[in-house]
Design brief:
The complex is a heterodimer of chains A (917) and B (285).
Chain A lengths: L3 E7 L2 E7 L5 H8 L18 E4 L2 E4 L12 E3 L12 H9 L8 H14 L5 H7 L11 H11 L24 H5 L15 E7 L5 E7 L1 H5 L3 E6 L12 E2 L8 E2 L5 E7 L2 H9 L2 E6 L6 H4 L15 E2 L9 E9 L2 H7 L2 E9 L11 E6 L5 E5 L4 H11 L7 E5 L15 H11 L3 E4 L2 H6 L7 E9 L5 E13 L5 H10 L9 E10 L13 H18 L4 H8 L18 H11 L10 E10 L6 E7 L5 E5 L8 H14 L6 E4 L17 H28 L6 E4 L2 E4 L2 E7 H12 L4 E6 L19 E12 L4 E12 L6 H20 L5 E2 L2 E2 L18 E6 L20 H14 L10 H12 L1
Chain B lengths: L5 E3 L4 H10 L3 E4 L5 H7 L6 E4 L9 E3 L3 E5 L4 H6 L4 H13 L3 H4 L4 H7 L6 H7 L3 E6 L3 E6 H4 E3 L2 E2 L5 E9 L6 E7 L10 E10 L2 E10 L6 E2 L1 H7 L6 H14 L10 H21 L1
Parallel strand pairs in B: 1-3, 2-3
Antiparallel strand pairs in B: 4-5, 5-10, 6-7, 6-10, 8-9, 11-12, 12-13, 13-14
Classes of the chains: A alpha+beta (917), B alpha+beta (285).
Bound molecules: flavin-adenine dinucleotide and FE2/S2 (inorganic) cluster (FES) (2 copies).
Chain lengths: 917, 285
Amino acid sequence: MNKKTLNFSLNGLAESIEVTPRTRLLDALRNKLGLTGTKEGCGTGDCGSCTVLLDGKAVNSCMVAALQVEGCEVTTIEGVGKPGDLHPVQQAMVQEGGIQCGFCTPGMVMSLKSLFDEESNPNEEAVRVAISSNLCRCTGYTKIIEAARALGAGEVDAKTAINKDGALGSSMTRMDAEEKVTGRAIYAEDVQLPRMIHGVVLRSPYAHAKILSFDSSEAERLPGVKAIVSAADTDMDYFGYELHDYRVFAVDKVRFRGEPVAAVAATTIDIARHAASKIKVEYEELPAVFDPEAAMADDAPLLHDDCNAYALDWETERSGNLCYQMKVDDGDIEKGFAEADEIVEAEYETPEAHPGSIEPHSSTAMMDANGRITVWTTTQKPFAFRGFLAKALKRPISTFKIIPTQIGGGFGGKLFPCLEPYAALLAERADLPVQMTLTREEEMYGTLLRHPSKVKLKTGVKNDGTLVAHSVRMLFNTGAYGLYGPNTSALASLMATGPYRIPNVSITGLVAYTNNVPCGSVRCPGGPQMAFAVEAHIDKIARCIDMDPLALRLKNAWEDGDYTCSGQKLESVSIKECLQKAADAIDWDKPRQPGEGKGIAANWWVSGTWGTQSLIESNEDGTFRLITGTVDMGPGGLTSSVLQLAAEGLGVPVDSITLVQGDTDTMPWDHGTGGSRMTFTIGKSAYEAAEDIKRQLLEEAANDLEASVNDLELVKDRVQVCGDPASHVLLSKLCYQRHKKHGGPMVGVSSVLDDPVPTTKKHPIGGFPAPSFCAHAVELSVDESTGEIDLKRYVAVHDVGNAINPVGCEGQIEGGVAMGLGMALMEEIREEEGRVMNPGFADYLLLTAEDMPPTQSILVEQPAVEGPFGIKGVGEPPIAPPTGAVANALIDAIDVDVARLPLTPEEVSARIRIRQS
Amino acid sequence: MINDFNFVQPSSVAEALEALSTNDGVQALAGGTNVMVNMKRAPLQTECLIDLSKLDELKTICEDDDCIRLGAGVTISELLNWKPGGVVERLMQPMCHAFAGPLIRNLATVGGNVCDTSAAADLSPVLLALNASVELQSASQGSRMLDLRDFFQGVRKTALRKDELLTAITFARPDDDARCFYYKLGKRKADAISIVSIAMILKLDKDIVSASSIGLGAVAPVALRAVAAENTLKGAALNDDTISAAAEAAVSDSSPIDDFRAGGDYRRQMVEVLVKKGLNAIKDA
Ligand SMILES: Cc1cc2nc3c(=O)[nH]c(=O)nc-3n(C[C@H](O)[C@H](O)[C@H](O)COP(=O)(O)OP(=O)(O)OC[C@H]3O[C@@H](n4cnc5c(N)ncnc54)[C@H](O)[C@@H]3O)c2cc1C
Ligand code: FES
Ligand code: FES
């Protein structure tokens, strides 16, 4: 190697290192100097997570060859501020809640710092521009822009930046804010182990082909290659979510372009890649099918010889490429249509979309002396991953220990194993630690996507606006494997009526295999697809009967006592309130200028899924440890609301509770994060575990104080006799004596049970506790000549039941709005013959800070009947309505029909031409 | 197997040219925003990178009353902060603002943008409209000037010889009374790849077009001048009929492809729309 010495100034100190011409500044910082606060989200200049200051200017360190900084001054996040000694920009980010998963945060801080180094009070436009190279998938930029405003206005203060008030309803600062804003948080790719080598996956270049032969002998002989694994030497079983049709390596044939065929580990990533290219796989291409409708035809190429051979947790009739179907009926659909004055029919299509976490998948595995394999990975579900690995590789669960790292955004993209099995197999084979990270390109076709949908709606309405009949045919293209297809269809069916009362309903859900990249369970699976179809359809109906779309919604909106299509009786329904608030905030009744329009869309979603268990242990000094088996993928529910609920249950200040983050060996089992369950389910169990330990503390104190438990209260750091604070005992004393006597801590435990929610109908999912409701509204203008849409402002009203941490709730809403707007306007995986044409952030577009409209979040707090403190989940719901709201505003502005997303300038132009003809 | 290349950091343009002439397989590295992307995708097929980023000689902007010379190493950020006034500023400012995002703008250079020869390179339509020339230098043959139109030779193909560097871009300052228009159509507001971009400069004598230059980006294998449209305009009164005719002619000037970024039909329509938009804006200005 062509090693050269590089001398430069790093964070104010002279630095001298050896690099090669191929070393990027980013690699030098992360790998040579261990400064892992600078992140790699793409490596192609598109995301900004690698931002550093080069001679004071913010640049992408992935775009700079290390040798180019000879003699220059480089500042990284590590040189900006430390926990306890934050830079004002960092204080502002913490104070205003601009941090979620934290992966974009170091880059964001660097860009803001360079702005504030030049200007002390930049205007909003300047702020948006300054961070427009820094993609954030979590926050919707709103709180980051707010942080810059507050800093410019002199409203940021080292002392008040961190809010330690853990009372319910207080916007307490999340516990991991400082660690993230200073770049100290450790994500999967930041894991560094001695002697670690690097692995890559060899993927199928064909969408559908027979594997005729496999020969890795040449690759094995290359210097530096340490292990190669493939189907031939791996004992595998099928695994999946509801549908168990997936194996770690393709066997006999490949079904999509990108399907793993083998994995290689070598001393460097370049050698591993080169070796993978030397593996000779002979294929015979097979006819392929990419359209789900065509895939269901009798003569379509068959992806799986017998789809009935795969285990499926739910009953269904399957055949050919149809891997799942379902039907839900209510009332009498024919009678309903007969009663209707108008029948409105249309079809709506949404494309494949990517979860879009800025952090790519990365896993590091190591085998220990006993043959157990530890995997450090970015996962929403550590325990499920342990189970997946055990099943997929036919090992006992005890083989694997999963250590979840910080997650740089999940959104459902980190629910299913990606690199873990390969890293584990390679580490075992090589007997060396192996790290694997997807390139951004692989990320776009080597992970699970959001299901594309085709939704046919036929709705009967009376002239007064009463909806009387609604027939729905949903077709989901699940790609080459079924995995989450059934679940997506089932969830989507719950959304198929929108939050509206329709007496006669017939819903069909179909899930078809095609030779496309397989789909998974992305944030609010089925939600944005159905919100687009149903909400655009409602506006179409409104136009058909010449009724105001808001009035039509209000007329049919659910009320307490109405039923979902699965027959769940609804309580605490707030949909009308949400709609009205959204309409008021967007000035619904005010007239529009030509070319401008307003759209409104409502939705509902489930909150809280599955049971869980939490523990709270005492420390000997009267502080506590909260132990849950879950992880926080960014929203901060775990690091704020859940702790707030635990503190509430105990009656102690929140900072006397430490959150324990562990691994699958040390933590209680849990389902993981997803399904809007964090605050609802984990929070509830934390609260109840806290109550449990509080009871024990009071009992212990009752002995000490010779009082009855009923006369005692726990106040901050002590237990005292009610009305006689002088008679008290400190928690520190109680805990110390308890630890001494029992040789261990006091332990509060709680189990939240997964009690089935009663429903009147047979439905694969049935009901959920605490449904949540929302309505969004948007104002936009359209340039009819080019088809460009300009979003003016956005309003999102969410009934969260009880806002335990309002800033956290708003953060979820704003981030969800950004993601939903992305689907509405620009996000789309473009496959041609099974090849992803836009594998990267240059062409798979997320909203930038310049695209995000000013967004107002309005919280409605109508307590859920069930659940702790009336909480309703808010993690997923915000991403659904934007698709409908934008479509409707477009319809309002220029009177076109919409049929598919995203509404790019080209698509809008096409719609205008259809209107004109 | 994995090719290993060398890296030189010359301290002057002369040294850089020397290195170019004495080695094979040498590639210039300026801001790196194309080179590093390529390197991420596949190993670089190069023997040696020559780092131009430290050459102050390439970073100057010289202007006098008539002529402007942009050093190849001027970054898009520097261009954005440059205030030459007149048509040049009114074209450069919106172009630079729509160019990538601030991080890339701090690295990306004028020379890199032109030499990369992407059909969608945003500088090209503006420079074409300004009738720019490129200054090319080599150790053996010194310096030569070439019309930018002749520099672009096809898909990712330029007139640059292996031993040459592009050292500057020059153009005459348009008259003060010239009028102009710039538009970049992309899929989002920041950091978007052009679907169509257009830069135009017109000279009007009363309402008669005495001269026009229209640069189009992303509608053909390389950026081009809409010659047919310019011919339509020449000597004509700038009225609705002329504008329609010029817009149609511009469509015939372009030959866009269908790709996943946009359909050829849409691109063609947008050429028509944007030429009309521009001419109308100029007419009403
Ligand atoms: C995220 C991102 C966004 C982008 N957005 C845009 C955009 O909006 N608009 C746009 O037009 N482009 C865009 N680009 C492309 C790129 O930034 C530009 O083309 C840029 O101007 C290239 O300049 P550079 O200095 O970085 O070139 P480099 O990458 O250093 O070089 C580019 C090519 O030119 C050659 N070269 C460079 N300088 C010279 C010279 N003086 N003489 C001879 N050869 C030379 C190099 O050898 C190389 O082949 C984007 C790129 C990225 C990564
Ligand atoms: S990693 Fe450098 S811009 Fe994404
Ligand atoms: S907080 Fe910005 S990407 Fe997660």
